[in-house]
Amino acid sequence: MRLAPTRLSRPVARLLCLLTAAAIALAIPTGAGAATTKLVAKQAQNATLEETVLTTTGGRTLYSLSAETHGRFICTGSCLSAWHPLVVPAGVKPIGPAKLGTVMRPDGRTQVTYRGRPLYSFSGDSKKGDANGEGIKDVGTWHAAALAKTSSEPHPQPEEPTYPY
Asked: Which of 63, 84, 67 is closest to 133 using CA atoms?
């Protein structure tokens, strides 16, 4: 037994076309679920420090505090009047000349990190190239976020670990 082809009414055919198009659109992945990125840092050769350091996009030196590691925050409260956290909106992936990460601050903001340490700008720097925060001792020492140097040695020696005792 052979069935005769069925002819659909024009409104039904349109509805089927719209439903098919919607199903296809839902099946194709879009970038909407992907994290957005934001350029938050640049690099600059700092003549005073004789190093290439991370800077804000405006050219201000970025720093980290030696005691802030593994999600432990020292710079909170009044410290934040001098040291300004480099933050991004939640869900934004920071990008720059080096691999950057993020960590959640105690106040809920998302702070940018380099080599696992939160990054800050310093209120004592008034212009591009200033590094007035370098070496300030607190509960740890503030250092400009220097980019890793590339070695011309075929097999560079690993750094000796430091121990807190």
From this structure: 63
Pairing mode, strands 87-88 and 83-85:
unpaired
Written as six digits, the tokens of 40 are 């938050």
Token pair listed for 94: 């920071």
22-61 pLDDT, tens digit per residue, is 545 444 444 455 569 999 999 999 999 999 999 999 999 9
110 in Cβ contact with 88 (< 8 Å):
yes
Full-model pTM: 0.71
Q: Which residues contact 99 (CB under 8 A, 6 or more apart)?
A: 114
- Three-state secondary structure call for residue 135: coil
In 3D space, the residue among 50, 58, 47 whose CA is nearest the CA of residue 126 turns out to be 58
Q: What are phi and psi of 55, to 5 degrees?
A: -130, 165
Burial class (CB in 10 A: 0-12, 13-18, 19+), 165: exposed
